Request: fold
Amino acid sequence: MEICAAISAFLTHVKVEKGLSSNTVSAYKRDLVKFDAFARKRKFSLEAISRDDLVDFLAGLYRQKLESRTVARQLVTLRNFFRFAQIQELIPADPSVNLESPKIRRTLPGYLRLEEVERLLAQPNEKTALGLRDRAMLEVLYSTGLRVSELISLGVSDLDAKVGCVRCIGKGDKERIVPVGRKAVGVVDRYLRDARPQLCGKGKASGNPTLFVNRRGRPLSRVGVWKILSAYGRRAGLRVPMKPHMLRHSFATHLLEHGADLRSVQLMLGHADISTTQIYTHVVEERLKQIYKAHHPRA
Reply:
């Protein structure tokens, strides 16, 4: 079987049989397209690919100055693909079995200071429908720590203003309930009353259940939200380029700075393993240092 045909079969398998999210399937596809281009250039057949060939491919990624985290993700994709190919008897042996994963240096997540968040939230022009929508999106992202993919999937009925919580579907189609602040609820209420009806209009989009819509009343895309946030970040003069995940990091960081426990933050972020949330413990450590310096007589 040709490599491209095997890749197509694998992507169908992870989407239909394993039920992985469209974002995960898209990530697998991007990684495997790179490998397919490498194999075509070397004129490899699927059955003849060896461990050394995979090492050469990964080494090429390093030569492109890609981060070890990116290379590690690519290796995970290859392992899953070749394991599938072996189970389907497309190859005699799995060439990725004895490949070592690159060591990943854990970096602290980039986040905004409180005054930077306030500057960012002040950027949208709330006198326009799009500006009010953008202010509502920013408030919800910072108030809940949602991923952008979770934000654009929210329906109007997913936010319960009376209870003060939002229902979202996270990675692995796992549902969770996240508290949402009063300020965010207030801005969303104004958006639903004054802006969303203008954006949806009276056409086909008027029946769209999605909470946040574009200027044509259609659901927003991840790229669309990314561009909106980047533009507001530049306008606010932030010290670092604005990325959607930075509001999620800021949400977790500021909660811990004000005394929240790690387990609660894990539940709100939707992390399956608390070890993922522990990257934020640098905040707790910094707070302990400040307490020590403020109160210890020999500090």
